[in-house]
Amino acid sequence: MTESVNFWAVVPAAGVGKRMQADRPKQYLPLAGKTVLEHTLNCLLQADVFSALAVAISKEDPYWPELDCSRHEHIITAAGGQERADSVLSALKSLSAQAADNDWVLVHDAARPCLTVADIRQLINTLQQDEVGGILALPSHDTLKNVAADSITQTIDRSVIWRALTPQMFRYGMLKQALQAAEGNPAITDEASALEMQGLQPKIVEGRPDNIKITRPEDLALAQFYMKQQAQQREQQND
Ligand code: C5P
Prior knowledge:
30% of the residues lie in helices and 25% in strands. It contains six helices and eleven strands. 37% of the residues are buried. Bound molecules: cytidine-5'-monophosphate (C5P). Residues 12-15, 27, 56, 80-84, 87, 109-111, 213, 215 line the site of cytidine-5'-monophosphate.
């Protein structure tokens, strides 16, 4: 008998995005006619696999209630926390009445609006029979250096280095427990690192390089370019 599990999405969207030097958090900056966050949520909704999306929003956030999607029937608002991991844990807790321990959760940064449905499907199809789960990631193409002060101390073997992206896909119960065990630990900058602390070895699935995180002002122009390119690719596929 095949096991019946639900899929949930968790979107941490409670950061301030200081490096953008903007008048509002980066998830609310305009991008191709919508906010960054609306693009992100639209992609997750379009995937048509999630029972609901739990979005972690800061208490002092005046922008979220202004968006129509804050009232979407498949979107749940949770309280944001001090760090990203606290926001993710809070969003997971907001699902506790509905989600089963065995269900899958895909955690995706609000600040990655160029995610594609194809990448969501690739992650799910590759990992849904896995014991632990895993993440989208990209191999490093640059040569990497260890640096002390302003001098190179060592060149790192880049063949074993991957850059962690999101979504990151784990079982609801395992992920909640791992994040609770790691609470307050500043080294937990993604979900996989919390699972690794439990001695587990999450898988990597190669993602698309256009799944960028908006971090600096110039990233918005790049995201706009990638979105245009994705729209053209979709048109060509439909021809
Ligand atoms: O700051 P950074 O780009 O690493 O944040 C990644 C994601 O985590 C963003 O979508 C941001 O809104 C979210 N975040 C959060 N709660 C925090 C800090 C960041 O939800 N306390």
